[in-house]
Write a structure and sequence with these properties.
By secondary structure, this protein is an alpha/beta fold. The chain is built from 24 helices and 21 strands. Helix 4 runs parallel beside helix 8 and helix 8 runs antiparallel to helix 19. It is a multi-pass membrane protein.
Length: 755
Amino acid sequence: MENKDLNGLTDAQAKERLKKDGLNEVPEPEFNFFKEFMSKLWNLSAWILEAALILECILGKWIQSLFVLLMLLFAAFNGATQKKKSRRVLNTISHELTPTVSVKRNGKWKQLNSKFLAAGDLISLKRGDVLAADVKIVQGQITVDESSITGESKAIKKSVGKTAYAGTTVVDGDALATVIATGSNSRSGKTINLINNSAAPGHLQQLLTRIIYYLCLLDGVLTLILVIAALIRGQNVIEMLPFLAMMFIASIPVAMPSTFALSNSFEATRLSKEGVLTSDLTGIQDAANLNLLLLDKTGTITENKTAVSQWDNLSKLQNKEVLALVGAAIDKRSPSIIDTAINDYLTEKGITPDIPNSFTPFTSNTGYSMAEVKNYNIKLGSFKQLSLIDKNADQEAKNIDFTAGRSVAVLINDKLSGVFILRDKVRSDSKKALEELKKRGIKPIMLTGDNRRTAEAVAKEVGLTGKVISIHDFNDKTDVNDLAGIADVLPEDKLKMVKLFQKDGYIVGMTGDGVNDAPALKQAEVGIAVSNAADVAKRSGKMVLLEDGLTPIVKILDAGHRVYQRMTTWSLTKLSRTAELTMLLTFGYLCFNYIPMALNAMVIYTIMNNMVTMMIGTDNTHITYKPESWNMLKLAKIAFSLAAGWTVIGFGFVWYLVSHNYAQGTVSTMVYVYLVLSAMLIVLITRTRKFFWQSAPSKSVAIVQIIDVLLTFTLALLGLAMTKINFTNLGLTIIVALIAAIVIDLFYQPIMKNK
């Protein structure tokens, strides 16, 4: 008697229930701009600004206090705005990662986007699935990880009649289940999102923390020098406090979070249009440093389409009868590529599969699927695993060439009854894409469950040079440079390989699709889940491909290099500009007995710089053809060399002005104009490996720079918040800044070209 629980819904019933209950999703909670804004006022950078604000108020510097307050509010407002934009980008991408579910509609199994699930739907669950709704088990048994909703890591068994909840992951078993609650009505009450909305900068955060450390160290030393000099000269140190406070304020990377958010969300959006969904933004950044890539053969190097190239009937039954029995052991609910290939072969031969009395899907633990038909027990799966059951299998199959492709064995009543040889077709773009990867200094290594000779043939076809070894011969002494591929790989072997390569100092990328690939995908710096990956693999990887093949991986590398170049520009610019400002003012005070820049001008200068550096996140970049590495010492040397050049020329300029009896106020305004122009030119110099006049910045960077420069000229000529200067003095300052930029770039450009 048929169980009505196994019938599922019709399309009409599902449509009616969806109309009543809504889609199986919960709207994302609205972004609270005010809450985000307030959080930006409660961090280390904000505390320094707030302390400076209080100090300025105590000293009665009300105009400066207003500027510091505006800077503080701008940083909070801009940070909240960029967070909102970044979240919108990630939310848009995450909806594209909604899992598909195997559901029975109108009596037929089909794959359906999980947001169209309705209460009453019959769905199939297998290892690796992430439940998209609350369900009741009606057949079979599964083990689920409920840590996502309970916090408990212990797996829980769910048998017939038990309820499993949305957001939990199936870690073992298979079952049929009826949907009992969707969307807001489910226990978790939220959409299953395969994206990790983490915008954490990963390795880059460590670099930027060190940049702040260097700047604060420099400021601390120069501040100490200024205080000691003032005490020796008998001057009022209290009057210098506003300037000292502004020197520290100038060091605060107010625009850093915004630059990060802008650059990463910019690249995440770009990649989503190119067939790559980003589930963790650190993956984009680490892609620039990638130097070793472990590649699944099937679906990445070869087409995700496998066909039977040879069938050998080793039983005493007629060929048609054996193939009909094989058809009963094919998974029709959630077919793998092997199931599909064999099913296509049966269809081509006109074979109608037998209907099984019972069916057990394939698991990596058993290595085969199993069906019971009449008096026959059929096992379909790995020859290696099945030969452990039939001890005579090797002898029976001695005439079969297992090197011709992937082998799938058939056991009938635990006796070897046939062997399929399946072959994957190499993708047309694989050879070209692999050449591109190698040209970029990345070592590609093919991973496959096939035997060594089959793997060698594929490696040769796609131009992978080196040896192909068995996983059994792989150890921590294996020379990576001699490897083209590793054969006989089981999914659980991949984590071991990733860790070994990382231990040797490699930045590892890996592609994967299965449940057992998840730990390795999570461990790799750039874990890439391929288009047909299990839900749990997609959740573990930092990238999810929407298309098969290697070409999208090249796009990930491009994105990583763009982020790297922008952050390099940001780092060099921030270090050199801040060092120039603090050194020029310190040496000016020591030599001329006054700080050669008005306090108001210093505040305005700091605000303008942050406006430009924020826009670096959208700048045009060039793609390099080698893995990058963050060398903080080298960056610091380059930045301080730049700062030294600008400081020496700037100090010479101030010396000239003082020796020609320019008034202190005029000198102060001209120094302000010089510093703003030098800051703009430093951005242009550090953003390219060509001479700065040979490479155009992005429209956003150019517009903000033009606005900053025009505003600077206007303030200087009208004498707003500073001493007024004439057109002659302005022209002289512009000429000095341009000459300085050209001279400095003549030294800087050859260094960066050979970097």
